[in-house]
Amino acid sequence: MRDCEREEPLCTCVDWKTGELDERIHHLVCNFELTGFDLEYTTLEPEEGRYLCRIGRCRVCGKRLCYGDELPAQSTPDVPDVAGQQ
Predict the structure, then answer these.
(1) Among 33, 24, 30, which residue's Cα sits nearest to residue 54?
(2) Out of 15, 31, 52, 72, which residue is the most buried by the measure of CB atoms under 10 Å away?
(3) CA atoms within 13 Å, Cβ hemisphere of 41
(4) Distances (CA, A) of 27 to 20, 22, 59, 67
(5) Rounded distance, CA 71 to CA 86, Å?
(6) What pLDDT sits at residue 86?
(7) Quick count: other Cβ atoms within 10 Å of Cβ 78?
(8) Are 11 and 19 contacting, i.e. CB atoms less than 8 angstroms apart?
């Protein structure tokens, strides 16, 4: 997993690096206010290096909270050909 490159200060309500996992999850679930999404990619190839981040703020301290997932490689979607249909 790649490190976050955002510069805004991270929420300081819990210890995100070494704190108890259940405390971190509880704080994120209870205090995450979504403000947007950020799609990161390292190449223009559609199957490589894509990462979707959910960006938000902490309802307690007001600082940044975010989490992300690497997007899996996908095959070509099965889209029906509607141009030939009546």
Answers:
(1) 33
(2) 31
(3) 11
(4) 11, 9, 10, 13
(5) 36
(6) 47
(7) 5
(8) no
Per residue in 5-51, pLDDT (tens digit) is 667 778 999 998 899 999 999 999 999 999 998 887 776 776 667 78
Yes or no: say if 51 and 70 are a contact pair by the CB < 8 Å rule: yes
CA dist list (Å): 52 to 5, 12, 22, 27, 35: 13, 23, 23, 21, 14
Look at residue 1 in the predicted model and tell me its pLDDT. 46
Structure tokens that stand for 11 in this block = 């929420």
Q: Is 71 helix (H, G, I), strand (E, B) or coil?
A: coil
Q: What is the pTM of this model?
A: 0.65
What is the model's pLDDT at position 70?
81
